[in-house]
Each structure stands twice: as structure tokens, then as C-alpha cells.
Automatic annotation (TrEMBL):
Belongs to the ABC-4 integral membrane protein family. FtsX subfamily. Residues 182-298 form the ABC3 transporter permease C-terminal domain. Forms a membrane-associated complex with FtsE. GO terms for biological process: cell division. It is found in: Cell membrane. Part of the ABC transporter FtsEX involved in cellular division. This is Cell division protein FtsX. It is a multi-pass membrane protein. Keywords: Cell cycle, Cell division, Cell membrane, Membrane, Transmembrane, Transmembrane helix.
Length: 302
């Protein structure tokens, strides 16, 4: 009987404040969707770092004849075979180095042509202008500075470059998007809380006579407050369901459209989205219930 009464009161409250309830559902849905998107962007960034950092290499470039006039480090001319071999010997002694692959000028020129087929410099630049290099894979890519300090400035070495720098701009952009999503999420959650509080106030005011009678006949605070709290939690549940639908729709868009066109990004799977959804439901309903509870402490006093 009590459960039936609570459910009937929930229906009455939702019908009386239909417009505000819809506003609560939409605002909660948007704020939770942004919260979920922020969490998924964080997982995406971590996944990409783990995927790409495991594949990046450190390149040790050697001086060419053309560098003698343009680089003080290469003033003595092109690197000799002995200088190139000395670097290899030192690399083999470093526990941090997993593998090291030599790339000749001809191989570097061929790879450059494949990656820049429309570059007008192809007709003017030959293979001799491309530096020879050791391409080094590290067991811990974050310790690039160890290789940098060991080989920078050595005879015949023009520069030591870390491919991670190419990826830092991409990760910086993704981290910026995550921060923006988080800020907007906080603002939307604040708006949702205000709407929940106002909806509960209006509902409590419109039913103040009924609740007053219930208090006079001995109904407990919990029994009086329960319909209002349940209304807010139910509206938040609908918002969480909508937010979950938005996240799933976004995931299927990424997997079925974006992933086919942006193949250099390793996108996270459906399991990450399904892990976030229960958290959104709990946070949404908990936020609404707590906000309703503290609002009712003031507005249901007889």
C-alpha cells in the first residue's frame, strides 16, 4: 500500500510540473553526457599514449656534406663510417635500447618521397642531401633524455630527435578538449542542480496541504519526503538514460564512420563506454536525491 501511494504521488508530481521535469531531464542528460565524454576522452588519450609511445623511435641523424656550411655541429663535414659505427657500439651497450636500425641516405630519400609525393623539392633534392641515421627503439620512451645527452654533440652527429614531439601537439589538443568538456560539465551540473531544487520547491509548495495533513496524522519525515525524492531521482534516471544513449550513439559514429577515415588513431572500444554508463546513472540519481533531500528539510516543515 505504501509503495503504491509513493508511486501515485510520483506520477502526480511529474504531471503537475511537466515542463520543469522535462528541463531537469534535458539538463541532467547533457551534463552527464559531457561527464561521460570527459571520462572517455581521458581513456582515449591514455590509450593513444600507450599505443603510440610504444611505437615511437629516437632518431640519431648524422652530418651530410651540405650540412658543413649550414650547421656548426657539422663544420668538419659529413660523418665518417667509423663515427657511425662508434654510435652503434655505444647504443649496443645501453640497457635502455631495445633495437637500433640503420637508415641510409638512399632509404631516407625513398621514404621521404613516399610520404611527400607532391613536394616540389623532389626534383631539386637528391639522396645525398638526406642524412643517414640510427632509428632507436627504447624500452621506456619517456627516457629519451638519456639518449639525447649521450649522443648530442658527438663527432658526426647532427641532431637527436624524439618522435614523441610530433604526438605531443595531438595529445595536447585532446587534453584541452577534455578540460573544456569538464568545465562545461561542471556548469551544466550546477544548472541541473538549480532546476532540481526549484522543481522540488514548486512540487512541495503545490502539495503543502497534503503533506501537512500527512504530518498531522503521524506520518514520518521519510514517508512524507519519499515521493519528492523519488520524483527527482526518476527525472535524473531519465536524464542518465538519455546521456547513455548519446554516448552510445557517439561511440557507434566513431567506430563506423570516423575510425575508417582516421586510421592512425587507436580508438577505445565499447567496453569503455559500458563501464562509464553505470557511473553516470549512479551519479545522476544520487545528485538528484541528495539535492531533493536537503531542499525538503526546509520546505516540508509544518
Amino acid at each position: 500500500m505504501r509503495a503504491q501511494f509513493v508511486l501515485s504521488e510520483i506520477g502526480v508530481g511529474l504531471r503537475r510540473n511537466l515542463t520543469m521535469t522535462i528541463a531537469v531531464v534535458v539538463s541532467v542528460a547533457l551534463s552527464l553526457a559531457l561527464a561521460g565524454a570527459s571520462l572517455l576522452v581521458r581513456d582515449q588519450v591514455n590509450s593513444m599514449k600507450g599505443y603510440w609511445y610504444d611505437k615511437v623511435e629516437v632518431s640519431i641523424y648524422f652530418c651530410t656534406k651540405s650540412d658543413a656550411t649550414s650547421s656548426a655541429q657539422c663544420a668538419r663535414g659529413a660523418a665518417t663510417d667509423q663515427q657511425i659505427q662508434d654510435v652503434k657500439v655505444q647504443l649496443d651497450k645501453m640497457p635502455l635500447v631495445q633495437t637500433s636500425t640503420f637508415e641510409s641516405s638512399a632509404e631516407a630519400y625513398k621514404r621521404w618521397k613516399e610520404t611527400n609525393p607532391d613536394n616540389p623539392l623532389l626534383a631539386a633534392v637528391g639522396a645525398e642531401a638526406m642524412p643517414q641515421s640510427w632509428r632507436v627503439k627504447l624500452s621506456d620512451p619517456t627516457k629519451y633524455d638519456v639518449v639525447q645527452s649521450a649522443f648530442a654533440g658527438k663527432p658526426g652527429v647532427k641532431s637527436v630527435e624524439d618522435q614523441r614531439k610530433i604526438l605531443e601537439n595531438l595529445f595536447g589538443l585532446l587534453n584541452g578538449l577534455q578540460t573544456a568538456a569538464f568545465v562545461i560539465m561542471v556548469l551544466m551540473l550546477f544548472v541541473a542542480l538549480l532546476l532540481i531544487v526549484n522543481t522540488v520547491r514548486v512540487s512541495a509548495f503545490s502539495r503543502r496541504r497534503e503533506t501537512g495533513i500527512m504530518r498531522l496524522v503521524g506520518a514520518s519525515n521519510f514517508y512524507v519526503q519519499m515521493p519528492f525524492i523519488a520524483e527527482a531521482a526518476f527525472a535524473a534516471l531519465l536524464g542518465a538514460v538519455m546521456a547513455s544513449g548519446l554516448l552510445l550513439a557517439g561511440h557507434f559514429f566513431v567506430q563506423n564512420f570516423l575510425a575508417e577515415r582516421v586510421q592512425f588513431i587507436h580508438f577505445i572500444g565499447l567496453s569503455s563506454v559500458l563501464t562509464v554508463i553505470p557511473l553516470l546513472v549512479v551519479v545522476g540519481m544520487g545528485m538528484a536525491a541528495v539535492a531533493a533531500f536537503f531542499t525538503l528539510r526546509k520546505y516540508l516543515k509544518v
